[in-house]
Design goal:
transmembrane helix, membrane, transmembrane, DUF350 domain-containing protein, cell membrane
């Protein structure tokens, strides 16, 4: 009786582990994509600005963008209800949509409010505009995540 139960359990655990791996790989790919989209909007290389220049504005903007993408991916996975291919596809589509909406929001703030991310990441001290844009990134992530659900 124990052997009969072990086989289905092992199969379910194996499928679950593969699903986790697939979602993790997709999530990391989307986080990297989001990072490079932010990288396109700043002067210089974002990784250099964060690591070598130790710029808090760049770090906060990149971090809030990553957190927002993470929220969207998590909501996409949750809303798929255990259907792997549907969850992966929705995570991909909605993750890319979230990145695009964050980029549009950043450009909108630049035009309407005069808050330039390009300027913010050249400032050595944390700027109030960075906090506002970071909260905007997170808010867009939450709105997109809830829309997915």
């Amino acid at each position: 009786m124990t052997v009969a139960l072990a086989a289905p359990l092992a199969e379910a655990l194996g499928r679950g582990a593969l699903a986790i791996l697939a979602y993790a790989l997709l999530g990391v790919a989307l986080l990297v994509a989001g990072f490079y989209v932010v990288d396109l909007t700043v002067p210089g290389r974002l990784s250099k600005v964060i690591q070598q220049d130790r710029n808090p504005n760049a770090a906060l903007l990149a971090g809030s963008g990553a957190a927002a993408v993470g929220l969207i991916v998590a909501a996409s996975i949750w809303s798929a209800g255990g259907v792997l291919h549907e969850g992966l596809l929705s995570a991909l589509v909605f993750g890319l949509t979230g990145i695009a909406v964050q980029t549009a929001g950043t450009l909108l703030f630049d035009r309407v409010a005069g808050i330039s991310m390009r300027r913010l990441v050249t400032e050595p001290e944390l700027e109030p505009g960075t906090v506002l844009l970071s909260v905007t990134h997170l808010t867009i992530g939450v709105i997109t995540a809830v829309a997915v659900i």
